[in-house]
């Protein structure tokens, strides 16, 4: 699976603080409360974030028939209390249950309270459409067909009501006094309908939903109970007599002298086609055995969950330094990425219960850790500079967990036993296909980071396929200063130029890229060291995001000259693990950005622009932006980067000849891999990551596709050949 490391669409956990807010009810989620999230693409970096909900609010947010969810699509289930795990499975089962809608026998106009749109009246000024009386602030106001009604007035338009008041959306947000009024109004409405009409069975109400599984189960119970009653004969006065004995083939005695009977489970009834049919007795016995095994499995899972949570609480009470010391004692690495504290707690809890997995045998630098999203153990290391290690195992080889002796005197560990289980237990039957939530559309798109010629912009507007808004113009405009290209997203771009090394004349600017198909990563990171034209102020401007989209952000800092140079070099080393002064001998490091060599030699020949476009016009701002978009000479020539470059093909700038030669070498390697049998998919994936990192591509929000066929290799060769024509 190419995108096996892509985050799951949902997550569940106990809130670590009281800082988060429910996205549905807008109320604070208290610390320790059970909460669930929807995972979606972040707008300010190339990654994903969680939008959290109260546990009950989350299920109100999901829409039956539209949203999908299963246990395999939820991260963090393993770290819940067993009771909460069972409740989660029950909630999923209820959400996925099919319903049969029983039609009404008569045309009764029924009000469904769960579908009714109700809200608190924000003021005292609104009037009810029916009675023309003003709403009281805080009162329940019903919105129906763009009109507002009192709850009591709205009831008068219906013959019946289904469901309960608690199922009204937002019922919990209403004040108690209005809840009481609504309860009284509903009771009066029901009483009036009873007196006006003949009594009806409540089960015949319109819109009653019948659970299919419950109905089938009831039928099965009734049929079983009837089949277990022996046939009887009744006299005329209905007095029961002895049951009539029925003789079957199974009851015939054996002809042997010992009168030995054949075992019941050995008697097999054959159908006409000769196939065997399981008897009711055997089926019940088998199902009973399966039920007992399932019960044993649940007890084992509960014990496992209790042990994990017990250790999790123990390590939560420890100081951060002590937790790191225990990791070091067991020869385990500090987790990388965000939320390191939670990762440390989860790993220590896992090690304490089962033992510590040995180092990965497939890569030189990997540690084996449990991945709650994939419900298996994976390697944290990299197989190559461009790809993560693909090792995974349900239960890897382990060594005993070691708790330092000094911790026993420092913390209360009474009743805690380490290395209590030899392997992790998994609930069978939960390996379902991961669903994808209905995420919002990102701001990215076909035209997001492209530079257009003026005529192409007008064509796009006429087709309705793109926009030329001021925000787009600002983000896609660059300014030429001192033969350098300054990103116009920097607020002081018109007053600055890219600083040059006083020794060799090289520019302090860097374009970095990182692509990993398994994580759906296609990231860029840009840095420019800018000098003010009129002062000794220096600015380090940085921007980052996803290639070809508007996902990302930027920032700048002001320094003196030496501090600015040091900060630029420090940031370059932090992102690439390479020294800036040795960038000509750049070596890609696993998990770090790659340095993209760009060539703006033709820009240097243009020199400075004497007048900044639009700086002296007296036209209104809106008119000025349209005129500048149409008559921007630099846009028409080169989109302010290079004269013949297609930004959709080179979204991060014009690539150097050396960069393109590296890409040719990678495609040649891919061609050789495709001729081998069997095809090594791991090496193909690594080569694809390498190619897309060297030659950044605009995939939008889609997962980058691996280069796994000769057709794709040929298309990539044509793309690179078109780059060479620009030189």
From TrEMBL:
InterPro entries: ARTD/PARP (IPR050800), PARP1-like_PADR1_N (IPR049296), PARP1-like_PADR1_Zn_ribbon (IPR012982), Poly(ADP-ribose)pol_reg_dom (IPR004102), Poly(ADP-ribose)pol_reg_dom_sf (IPR036616), WGR_dom_sf (IPR036930), WGR_domain (IPR008893), Znf_PARP (IPR001510). GO terms for molecular function: DNA binding; NAD+ poly-ADP-ribosyltransferase activity; NAD+-protein mono-ADP-ribosyltransferase activity; nucleotidyltransferase activity; zinc ion binding. Residues 221-260 are annotated as: Disordered. Keywords: ADP-ribosylation, Coiled coil, DNA-binding, Glycosyltransferase, Metal-binding, NAD, Nucleotidyltransferase, Nucleus, Repeat, Transferase, Zinc, Zinc-finger. The keyword Transferase applies. It catalyses: NAD(+) + (ADP-D-ribosyl)n-acceptor = nicotinamide + (ADP-D-ribosyl)n+1-acceptor + H(+). Belongs to the ARTD/PARP family. Its EC number is 2.4.2.30. It is an enzyme of class 2 (transferase). This is Poly [ADP-ribose] polymerase 1. One of its GO terms (cellular component) is nucleolus. PANTHER family: DNA LIGASE, POLY [ADP-RIBOSE] POLYMERASE 2. Gene3D superfamilies: 3.90.640.80, Poly(ADP-ribose) polymerase, regulatory domain (1.20.142.10), Zinc finger, PARP-type (3.30.1740.10).
């Amino acid at each position: 699976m190419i995108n096996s490391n892509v985050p799951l669409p949902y997550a569940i956990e106990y809130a670590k603080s009281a800082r988060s807010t429910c996205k549905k009810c807008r109320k604070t989620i208290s610390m320790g409360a059970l909460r669930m999230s929807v995972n979606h693409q972040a707008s300010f970096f190339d990654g994903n974030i969680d939008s959290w909900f109260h546990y009950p609010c989350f299920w109100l947010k999901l829409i039956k028939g539209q949203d999908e969810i299963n246990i395999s699509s939820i991260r963090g289930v393993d770290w819940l209390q067993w009771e909460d795990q069972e409740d989660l499975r029950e909630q999923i089962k209820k959400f996925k249950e099919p319903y049969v809608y029983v039609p009404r026998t008569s045309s009764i106009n029924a009000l469904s309270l769960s579908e009714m749109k109700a809200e608190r009246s924000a003021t005292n000024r609104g009037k009810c459409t029916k009675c023309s009386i003003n709403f009281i602030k805080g009162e329940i106001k019903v919105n129906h067909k763009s009109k507002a009604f009192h709850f009591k007035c709205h009831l008068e338009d219906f013959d019946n009501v289904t469901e309960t008041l608690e199922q009204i959306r937002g019922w919990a947000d209403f004040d108690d006094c209005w809840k009481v009024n609504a309860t009284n109004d509903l009771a009066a409405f029901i009483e009036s309908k009873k007196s006006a009409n003949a009594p009806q069975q409540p089960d015949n109400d319109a819109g009653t939903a019948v659970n299919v599984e419950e109905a089938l189960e009831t039928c099965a119970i009734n049929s079983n109970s009837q089949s277990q009653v022996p046939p009887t004969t009744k006299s005329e006065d209905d007095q029961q007599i002895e049951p009539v004995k029925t003789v079957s083939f199974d009851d015939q005695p054996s002809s042997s002298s010992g009168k030995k009977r054949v075992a019941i489970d050995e008697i097999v009834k054959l159908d006409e086609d000769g196939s065997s049919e399981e008897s009711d007795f055997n089926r019940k016995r088998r199902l009973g055995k399966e039920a007992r095994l399932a019960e044993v499995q649940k007890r084992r899972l509960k014990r496992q969950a209790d042990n994990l949570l017990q250790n999790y609480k123990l390590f939560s009470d420890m100081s951060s330094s002590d937790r790191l010391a225990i990791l070091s004692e067991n020869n385990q690495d500090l987790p990388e990425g965000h939320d390191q504290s939670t990762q440390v707690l989860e790993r220590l809890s896992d090690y304490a219960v089962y033992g510590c997995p040995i180092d990965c045998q497939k890569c030189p630098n990997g540690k084996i850790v449990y991945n709650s999203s994939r419900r298996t153990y994976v390697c944290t290391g990299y197989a190559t500079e461009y790809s993560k290690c693909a090792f995974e195992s349900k239960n890897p080889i382990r060594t005993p967990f070691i708790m330092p002796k000094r911790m026993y005197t420092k913390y209360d560990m009474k009743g805690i036993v380490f290395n209590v289980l030899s392997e992790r237990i998994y609930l069978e039957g939960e390996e379902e296909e991961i669903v994808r939530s209905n995420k919002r559309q990102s701001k990215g798109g076909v035209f997001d980071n492209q530079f257009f010629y003026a005529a192409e912009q007008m064509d796009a507007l006429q087709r309705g396929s793109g926009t030329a808004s001021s925000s787009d113009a600002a983000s896609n405009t660059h300014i030429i200063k001192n033969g350098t290209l300054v990103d116009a997203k920097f607020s002081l771009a018109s007053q600055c130029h890219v600083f040059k090394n006083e020794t060799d004349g090289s520019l302090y600017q860097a374009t970095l890229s990182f692509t990993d198909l398994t994580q759906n990563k296609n990231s860029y990171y840009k840095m420019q060291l800018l000098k003010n034209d009129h002062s000794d102020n220096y600015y380090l401007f940085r921007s980052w995001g996803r290639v070809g989209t508007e996902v990302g952000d930027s920032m700048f800092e002001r320094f003196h000259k030496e501090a600015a140079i040091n900060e630029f070099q420090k940031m370059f080393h932090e992102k690439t693990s390479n020294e800036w002064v040795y960038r000509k001998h750049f070596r890609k490091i696993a998990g770090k950005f790659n340095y993209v060599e760009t060539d703006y030699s033709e820009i240097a020949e243009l020199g400075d622009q004497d007048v900044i476009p639009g700086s002296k016009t007296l036209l209104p701002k809106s008119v000025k932006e349209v005129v500048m978009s149409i008559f921007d000479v630099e846009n028409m020539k080169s989109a302010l980067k290079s004269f013949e470059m297609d930004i959709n093909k080179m979204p991060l700038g014009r690539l150097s000849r050396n960069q393109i030669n590296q890409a040719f070498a990678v495609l040649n390697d891919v061609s050789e891999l495709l001729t081998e049998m069997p095809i090594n998919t791991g090496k193909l994936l690594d080569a694809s990551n390498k190619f897309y990192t060297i030659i950044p591509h605009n995939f939008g929000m889609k997962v980058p596709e691996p280069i796994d066929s000769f057709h794709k290799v040929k298309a990539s060769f044509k793309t690179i050949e078109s780059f060479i024509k620009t030189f």
